[in-house]
Model the fold of this input.
Amino acid sequence: MELKRKARLALTDIYGKERLKTSKEDRVCYAYDARNARCIPDAVVFPTSAEEISRTLALACELGFPVVPRGSGTGTTGGSVAVEGGVVLVTTLMDRIVEIDTDNFTAEVEPGVITGDFHKAVEAKGMFYPPDPSSAGVSTLGGNVAECAGGPRAVKYGVTRDYVLGVEAVLPTGEIVHTGVRTAKGVVGYDLTRLLVGSEGTLAVITRILLKLLPLPAATATLKVSFASMDEAAEAVTRIIASGTLPRCVEYMDEASISCAQSIADLDLPQGCRSILLIEVDGSASEVATSLEAVAGIVKGAGAMAVEEARDAHEAKRLWTVRKKVSPALYLFGPDKINEDIVVPRSAIPKMVKKIESLKKEYGLPMVSFGHAGDGNIHFNVMIDKKDPVQKLRADAVIDEIFDHTLALGGTLSGEHGVGITKREYIGKELGDKELEIMRGIKKLFDPKGILNPSKIF
Amino acid sequence: MELKRKARLALTDIYGKERLKTSKEDRVCYAYDARNARCIPDAVVFPTSAEEISRTLALACELGFPVVPRGSGTGTTGGSVAVEGGVVLVTTLMDRIVEIDTDNFTAEVEPGVITGDFHKAVEAKGMFYPPDPSSAGVSTLGGNVAECAGGPRAVKYGVTRDYVLGVEAVLPTGEIVHTGVRTAKGVVGYDLTRLLVGSEGTLAVITRILLKLLPLPAATATLKVSFASMDEAAEAVTRIIASGTLPRCVEYMDEASISCAQSIADLDLPQGCRSILLIEVDGSASEVATSLEAVAGIVKGAGAMAVEEARDAHEAKRLWTVRKKVSPALYLFGPDKINEDIVVPRSAIPKMVKKIESLKKEYGLPMVSFGHAGDGNIHFNVMIDKKDPVQKLRADAVIDEIFDHTLALGGTLSGEHGVGITKREYIGKELGDKELEIMRGIKKLFDPKGILNPSKIF
Done:
């Protein structure tokens, strides 16, 4: 569907020529997210205010074209691509940190602020914003809110949802609304704030975000722990959490992930190491020392082959860089990646890892898993060549089995990536008919014309 | 409106004679909550399963009678009283702690579990459920979820919303739904869980709750700090939070609250003390020692007259008992209490306290404030004799001014009590027309016949 002349003229009225892009070259740049499938929009606009977004959505309702909100496009489930064409609305020009309130530990930001820039800004003032998705250097806070981004620190600090106090948002019908409060507590009316968090840009375009901040921990320390088996690593995680020490990150890498990581940098691992944990603790200096000692004792008791503390911030950073580079390095195993982010109750990780091992043998496809062991969030990847129809069919069968097993273990199909378009066909495995009917009813209530980010989630 | 014969027969079918109460004596017992206004229901039922609740709600839709869910009736805004008559559905027989999972730090409970019993059960296993409303000894977890209960520990640990992973609930139309996940992360579909938390029993009857738990802190310590003025106390709170030490509770009492508390027990305060802070820190033993020292230093710097640490658990408990008894002791000042739980950004507490002082002089009514200074949640009370129409009018004017001032300071009209019926007429001060329209639309979507807890919130 192409935009009508009337729509193009009206959009030019709002955005001028500078902030409305309609050339093919410009549109192709906004045809992808990290999922790597192509949906070319009819136009791309760059609003600088809620009012412009309001006018755009009112126009979309009137003339019937889709609008797809987008931050930096780092999502992995197609949430920000224009499946049905229409206008991609890019929020990156709305990138002001409006206020950092050092008395009340809150911040007010526009949606286009880069997550990593926000981390730096609040940390410079002695404050801390825990959500830290892998793409933090590029992703926007608006996108983080839309997807309810997580990351490794969730084991101790929770996810984006836990830090959003309120938002300003534009409804698909064009009205500007304000939800939530500026305070830690607030129970006046239904919780529209958390309804919008994680709604994947289908209910409203977020134009202002009120965030809760914490005091910046005085100290952190990182441990790299090697194990001869994934089972032992998983057992160590269970024992750490049960001990009452809550690290801020407990990341694991399986044998295949380690091979990938080794291809980037020498991890200096003992012979026979088949799994590693990266554990980060934080708090006051004395608390960190106590936690480190406790954790080291526990992992040794659980059979660790080697326990090494990063000697300094530089070495800790190197360890984390390696962990974050595993994902792109997976292309060693195949040209196409199917990337899932299932979650199981933490104690079920060994069962899940065993399942993955047996599927690997059964289907003969390269599979890699790593992720946030502390909260049971497994980034499970199948590497294939999509041009090979047999590989594609096998991969689909693997995903199906993995999803069924995840749900049987009491888990969920997505911890932080969302449904978007890639998990849409599976949503009925996790959610019942009535639950889906209610969600569709909410979508209809917010977006009676169905113009905002259509064909996503359900 | 009385229940039709057909409805009574059908309810007898579901509940037998034992669990259906229709005598006036029985109905009067369920005509009140802590707000102290009388609404006698037509019948009271005591379900033992989601299926029975489902049948009851389907029947209510068919025959058109209201159903009002109720736990222990400790709410303060009329949320559990049958304003339009009908059936009060009491969940107290559904009081099983179904599971406490020590590996994954989760629990599954029925809605009728008493909050304090749950605290004891999880603490016996070395785990911790932070939400701790004043009524914890009596209130139910179902009621806590319906109202999004808070309490003093929210400053560090958040509120009920932050601990609810998922629920089983019966929709007003009778369908049983399951929302959320058993894991810390989960982003499949819209967040129906948080939509139900704090919805005051107007969207669904909660029949099962999945809760997140934390490791039980190894140590706690309580400080009682005396100040010559409320301003100094408030300044101390701001400095403590800004220092990076996050106590788990920071409670304050103003001069009038202190008088009340003194009437219960000698608080052993220095001459001229006009405000006290109760500060509780927790963590490992060493962390608690460090925090105590830091906090003591800060409050002295802010002008504290005296800083005393509770010498033992017994003394700490006594301090907290006094704090919790202030609310009932307020009846010293008048036969009727108007109890509000406004929240302002923490740093605005001195401004709010000054406003209260000036209103006291202006209107000549006894007013008392105390509450959760750490999160800006002020329990503000006006004591009157409602039979005196002049006092009643004055009190209404005071409340109006307090609410306007709260919102002007960036606050909210309720931190933990909810809207119910007592704040319904004020909700338009805080929420815009479009936001209310969306909320009413959600109510209609869940409850097309309007039979579940009608006349509440809006």
